[in-house]
Write a structure and sequence with these properties.
The chain is mainly alpha-helical. It folds into 2 domains: about 1-165, Farnesyl Diphosphate Synthase (Orthogonal Bundle), CATH 1.10.600; about 170-358, Orthogonal Bundle (Farnesyl Diphosphate Synthase), CATH 1.10.600.10. It is about 75% helix and about 0% strand. The protein has 17 helices and 2 strands. The chain has helices at about 5-10, 15-45, 50-60, 65-80, 85-110, 120-130, 140-165, 170-195, 200-225, 230-255, 260-265, 270, 280-285, 290-295, 305-310, 315-335, 340-355; strands spanning about 115, 120. About 45% of the residues are buried. Keywords: Magnesium, Metal-binding, Transferase.
Amino acid sequence: MTQNPDAHRAEAAMSPRKARSALLARVEERLAGFLAEERRTWAASNPDAVELVDCVADMVSSGGKRLRPSFCVAAYLAAGGDPGSSAVVDAAAALELLHTSALLHDDVFDASELRRNEPTAHIRHAVLHTERGWHGEPRRYGESVAVLAGNLALVYADRLMAGAARTEWSRRIWGELSTELMVGQFLDVRAAARFRPDPALARWIALFKSGRYTVSRPLAVGAALADGTPGLQEVFEEYGLALGEAFQLRDDLLDAFGSAEVTGKPARLDFKQHKMTLLMSFALADEPEVRDLVGDDLPGTDPDELHALLIRTGIRDRVEAVIAERLKVANEAVAASLSPRWAAELQAMAKAAVHRDK
């Protein structure tokens, strides 16, 4: 996608928020166009395959905060990148497709029935299996479709990033990001099965499964595409790691204390899935009452009783304090190194990411 020089100058003169919004609008167009072309290709080749492409497209079009593309685009622009670039548009779209892959897989791992207030992919396809009177087990079919759709989204992400990441530096960051996400997912599953309070491991999982791939790595991708200086990468790393941890801790609190009607997914799913989140690690390691109530059976614990106990023992307040401290670190990192305009923009993005209700 190209623009004329006058359009480039107009975008460069925009406020940081408007410039970021303009690029993000192009990211949405790229995602929609790419997936529509895939659908046309497969409809002509083998119409049955369209259902798998649609599974990816449905997740992409169902909403979402677009945090990863937003941080990628913000870092790119803050580092002086050309607003007319097609490479950053492809990279930001690739990040959203990587996120789509993770969500499709997460919903299977967690046996979640809702995502963004709609039935999850594996549930929808299990229902289709039943309605069509097909052979085999509907649950297994639905899960298989969702896993394959997640894999397809990952393939699409790699295809887009292959065209965007034109330097060894940007390709290395993408490879590290993808690897960290997979390893973090595995360690999350493993920690749930082992179910042993380990705040250090829980913090590591929070950083690599969510924090790094949500904030610091998308920032790094954007800066690399703009040929940002190594010093700027260090700033984004400090900001991104602090904000990424705060973001994941907010997720923990929303799962434990949020409303399913607002978050769009089942409440207290981490309890039901035995997830050793940082919140639960704090609680089990430091609060005898919580240990006595939970024992080794978190899914069997009365969620309302655990909810009340977490509030009474101060765990919720403790996590909020960690979030506030991490947000302060993130804000100070960009205030000390970026222009006032972009420091203010990244601080506003941090506030929105952390102080959210879904």
